């Protein structure tokens, strides 16, 4: 009986230590775990992203950390005709995976770039909207990344951040609100519970 009690406790301790280490040493999800980032996300659904992001045909939108294209392939269709989705990732393998899937589905309005969210390779006021899902917590300097996202948004643009448990890198809503405010972004609201939410921000009106 004692062994049965110790096993769950050991698993919980291991999970806690893994989460602690992940928070202290944030890093992008390796390509070898690509199947995990392709799984359905019950709270962070594509439909909820669409409702929060409010994409329109003809817009220019940025996704940071597209992974294998779970959201990108749908977003690209939402902004057609005339729109362009720019996807930025640290890992070339993730970018290549997304672009291969897009080509296979006859989607041709995705522009891939390898780059760092802490120093976005785009001019000021480049995008109508931007989003990142289960990605912000993987960025070492979240404050800098949010300032960069603010910089590349057009006046009246939108930023959507999605976060979900049990992701060890999850950014709690309270932390996100504090960081976004420091980056000069105004909170408009969220969709979903605190355990799995999309939060929407906009630049101030005088940008």
Give structural notes:
It is a single chain. The chain is built from seven helices and seven strands. The chain has 207 residues and is an alpha/beta fold. The chain has one domain: Vaccinia Virus protein VP39 (Rossmann fold, 3-Layer(aba) Sandwich), CATH 3.40.50.150. It has a seven-stranded mixed beta sheet, with helices on both faces. The chain is globular. One of its GO terms (molecular function) is S-adenosylmethionine-dependent methyltransferase activity. This is Methyltransferase type 11 domain-containing protein.
List low-confidence stretches.
Answer: 6-23
Form type: globular
- The number of helical segments is 7
> What is the highest CATH level, the class?
Alpha Beta
So what's the oligomer here?
A: single chain
Instruction: Please give the radius of gyration in angstroms.
Output: 18 Å
β-sheet strand percentage: 15-25%
Largest sheet: 7 strands, mixed
Structure class: alpha/beta
Pfam family, one: Methyltransf_11
InterPro entries: Methyltransf_11, SAM-dependent_MTases_sf
Protein name: Methyltransferase type 11 domain-containing protein
Domain Methyltransferase type: 62-161
